[in-house]
Specification:
Elements lengths: L2 H95 L2 H20 L5 H19 L2 E3 L12 E7 L9 E6 L2 E3 L2 E4 L1 E6 L1
Parallel strand pairs: 2-6
Antiparallel strand pairs: 1-4, 3-6, 4-5
Helix pairs in contact: 2-3
Length: 201
């Protein structure tokens, strides 16, 4: 082989070696870059995990506070509903029993009317006029919600009757009301005056 040919072969070998070394350098650079990126990704993942842990801790710390606020809110709502119901009941009671005092005082007037009529002559025109006035007064009381308690011949009930006397009776059984001494009245299902009665033994 000639010297020129040997030189060419030598140059080509050197070129091939340079290419191989360059390729190896590129590979090493890529590997180092990959390591750096993977380390960066790991660090970023660690940061995300720590942030998530911190968020979870904050949520856990906020949960009891939120629960306390929710329970307080529910209690306030329940108290408000109870207050609303109570005020509505008080208003309805005020409307229902606003006339209780004046009706109670008028009952004494009605008692006197009935006593006068019982003592007078039923055929007298004056007594008839008084009876008409009494009926008109009782109609006004009925419109206001007042009504008479039925007592004569009924079983004695301490919620509606006030027994002041007992007597033997052939007409009524034991425990029955034999006579009404003073009429009792109810106003809107509330006893404003119990009936004063005699009861059979």
């Amino acid at each position: 082989m000639s010297d020129d040919a040997k030189k060419k072969v030598k140059e080509e070998c050197e070129k091939a070696c340079d290419v191989n070394t360059q390729a190896e350098d590129v590979k090493e650079e890529k590997n180092t870059e990959g390591r750096e990126t993977s380390s960066e990704e790991k660090s970023s993942e660690k940061k995300d995990d720590t942030e998530k842990d911190e968020d979870n801790k904050e949520k856990k710390s906020q949960d009891p506070e939120e629960e306390a606020l929710n329970t307080k809110y529910l209690r306030l709502m329940a108290d408000f509903q109870n207050f609303k119901r109570r005020t509505e009941k008080e208003k309805s009671d005020i409307y229902a029993f606003a006339n209780e005092k004046i009706i109670s005082e008028l009952l004494n007037v009605i008692d006197n009317f009935e006593r006068a009529l019982a003592a007078g002559d039923a055929e007298d025109s004056f007594c008839q006029g008084m009876e008409m006035i009494l009926k008109q007064l009782l109609t006004v009381l009925e419109k206001a919600g007042a009504s008479e308690i039925t007592a004569l011949g009924e079983d004695f009930d301490p919620n509606f009757h006030n027994a002041v006397m007992t007597e033997d009776s052939d007409e009524y059984e034991s425990g029955k009301v034999t006579e009404v001494l003073q009429k009792g009245y109810i106003l809107n299902n509330k006893v404003i005056r119990p009936s004063m009665v005699k009861v059979a033994n």
